[in-house]
């Protein structure tokens, strides 16, 4: 057995030497997409909240970004600043309860009490928020869960690349507009989903916070099966997280995602993003395409859709 092990290690060493040019695929997943006429686009899934341990990103990622003419993101969130108060006001105004009632009235005392307690513990509650509808409160709970998981938006991948692009003067392309994002957050489906999510999150907040840490760990390792489980609550290559409560929560959220066939569903948005990416490929512009990691996984993810369109897609 010892002799076999030594020979195997020798063979492995030779293979590694011969394949010294093989890509190091450790860290977050990235794909290189090429067209027949030489068009190149890099797909890099982002996570909107992270921690400092994610940086610096692997050299293969920073090198690919540096080679590109433009950065494409879902939406340039850096424009929602004091300097562009009109855009921020438009987005937040759209999330207000339109009939003048307060959220506590619409929500009911039991659920409101649970949400209030969670946000108070996080130091993120204000009675002024009562003017907003369920989507706003879901976003507040998401922010509290990220904080509980020791993740922050300032370390998010999209924020990281947007800061770089603005600093370097690199062209920034928006895959989805402010108008689309506003419509997404104020659609009837979004309101319906938010009410369901609020109940789940309020009853299982600790598991919900753990889901963000699970997502971050899977993302930082480039673990596609684990990412699929985080997004859809199931994966052919991932049995679960090892935590029954977390598994149940992810399965509930995943089932809601898979049942959604609206124009704002993950599947529909992926199709639109894939079409936009194909347009960039045909334009001759080299683009570093950064959108949420959830858009990259599964049979309806952007890499799979571009491959179905006839482009060459490979992990890079």
* Oligomeric form: single chain
Widest beta sheet: strand line-up:
4-3-5-2-1-6
Helix content: 40-55%
How many beta-strand elements? 6
Mean pLDDT: 89
The percentage of residues in β strands lies in 5-15%
Our count of helices gives: 14
Shape: globular
Radius of gyration: 21 Å
Biggest sheet record = 6 strands, mixed
Tell me the distance between the termini. 36 Å
Q: Topology as H/E string?
A: HEEHEHHHHHEHHHHHHEHE
Structural class: alpha/beta
Residue stretches low in confidence (pLDDT < 50, at least 5 long) are: 1-23
Question: In words, what does this structure look like?
Answer:
The protein has 316 residues and is of the alpha/beta class. It is built from 14 helices and 6 strands. It has a 6-stranded mixed β-sheet, sandwiched between helices. Helix 3 packs parallel to helix 8, helix 6 crosses helix 9 and helix 11 packs across helix 12. The longest helix has 18 residues. The radius of gyration is 21 Å and the shape is globular. The two termini are 36 Å apart.
């Amino acid at each position: 057995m010892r002799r076999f092990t030594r020979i195997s290690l020798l063979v492995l060493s030779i293979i590694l030497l011969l394949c010294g040019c093989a890509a190091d695929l450790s860290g977050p997943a990235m794909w290189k997409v090429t067209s027949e006429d030489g068009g190149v686009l890099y797909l890099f899934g982002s996570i909107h909240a992270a921690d400092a341990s994610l940086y610096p990103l692997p050299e293969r990622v920073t090198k690919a970004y540096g080679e590109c003419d433009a950065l494409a993101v879902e939406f340039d969130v850096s424009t929602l600043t004091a300097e562009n108060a009109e855009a921020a006001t438009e987005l937040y105004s759209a999330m207000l309860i339109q009939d003048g009632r307060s959220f506590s009235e619409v929500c009911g005392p039991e659920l409101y009490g649970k949400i209030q307690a969670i946000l108070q513990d996080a130091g993120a509650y204000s009675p002024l928020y009562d003017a907003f509808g369920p989507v706003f409160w879901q976003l507040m709970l998401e922010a509290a869960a990220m904080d509980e998981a020791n993740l922050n938006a300032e370390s998010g991948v999209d924020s990281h690349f947007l800061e770089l692009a603005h600093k370097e003067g690199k062209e920034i392309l928006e895959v989805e507009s402010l108008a689309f994002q506003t419509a997404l957050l104020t659609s009837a489906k979004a309101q319906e989903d938010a009410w369901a999510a609020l109940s789940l999150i309020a009853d299982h907040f600790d598991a919900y916070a753990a889901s963000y840490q699970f997502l971050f760990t899977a993302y930082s390792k480039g673990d596609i099966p684990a990412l699929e489980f985080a997004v859809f609550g199931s994966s052919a290559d991932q049995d679960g997280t090892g935590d029954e409560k977390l598994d149940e929560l992810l399965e509930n959220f995943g089932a809601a995602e898979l049942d959604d066939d609206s124009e704002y569903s993950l599947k529909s948005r992926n199709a639109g993003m894939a079409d936009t990416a194909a347009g960039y490929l045909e334009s001759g512009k080299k683009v570093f395409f950064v959108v949420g990691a959830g858009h990259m996984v599964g049979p309806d993810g952007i890499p799979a859709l571009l491959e179905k369109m006839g482009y060459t897609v490979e992990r890079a």
